[in-house]
Amino acid sequence: MTRRRALIGLAILLAVVGLGELGRGAWIHVKARLAQHLLQRAWARTVRGVDRARPWPWADTWPVARLRVPAHGVDLIVLSGVSGRTLAFGPGHAPDSAAPGTPGTAIVTGHRDTHFRFLERVKPGDEVLVELPGGRPTRLTVEATSVVDSRTAVIRSEDRAAGLILMTCYPFDAVVPGGPLRYVVTARSGGG
C-alpha cells in the first residue's frame, strides 16, 4: 500500500509541476497580448503629442511607431530600444538605426515565439505599413527573407529610400532560445 501511495504522490507532484510549467509558458503569451493593449493606449497618447508616453508608470520604454502587415493580420506597436525587458512586451526599434519609415534602414527586432512569430509566413511582395507619430503610414514591400549568422552579418544603411529590417531569432521552433542565427525580412519603399 505504501508503494501505491508513493506512486500516487509522485503522479500528483508531476501533474502540479507540469501544470505550473504550462502556466508559465502561457503567461508569456498572455503578457505579450496584455502589453500590446497597454501599448495601443500609449500609442494613442503619442499620436496626440505626448512625448515618450510610457505604457505603464514604471516602463523604461515608449512607443515610437506602429507596424502593420495586413496579409498576416499584424498590428503592433514598436517600442524604443532592444533590451530583453523591452522585447518581452513588443518589438523594439534599434535606436542607432534610422527611424522606421524614413530614409535609411530601420531595424526592428522581436521574439520569434510571440510578436514576430508571423515572420515565418512573410513572403516577398507582402505589404508592410509603418506609421510614425503625426505622420501618414509609409508603405513598404517585402523584398527578401534570409537567415544570417549574427556573428558575421553586416546590415548596411541605404539613404535613398526608406528601408526596414525585421529580425528575430532562428529557427522558429528551436527548443533553446538564442543562438547565432537570425531570420531577416527586408522591406523597402518604392520611392528610391
What this model shows, in words?
The protein is of the alpha+beta class and 192 residues long. It has a single domain, classed as Beta Barrel (Sortase, Chain: A). The protein has two helices and eight strands; from the N terminus they run αββαββββββ. The protein has helices at residues 2-47, 84-87, and strands at 63-69, 74-80, 92-93, 104-109, 127-131, 138-149, 162-169, 181-188. The chain has an eight-stranded mixed β-barrel. It is globular and about 80 Å long. The termini are far apart.
Q: Name the beta content range.
A: 25-35%
The beta-strand count equals: 8
**Secondary-structure arrangement, i.e. CATH architecture:** Beta Barrel
N-end to C-end Cα span: 79 Å
Biggest sheet descriptor? 8 strands, mixed, barrel
**Helix and strand run:** HEEHEEEEEE
Could you tell me the mean pLDDT?
88
Reading off the top of the CATH hierarchy, the class is best stated as Mainly Beta
Q: What's a quick, concise take on this entry?
A:
The protein is an alpha+beta fold and 192 residues long.
Main attributes of the structure:
Sortase, Chain: A; alpha+beta; single chain; 192 residues
Describe the protein's topology.
Layout: H1 2-47, E1 63-69, E2 74-80, H2 84-87, E3 92-93, E4 104-109, E5 127-131, E6 138-149, E7 162-169, E8 181-188
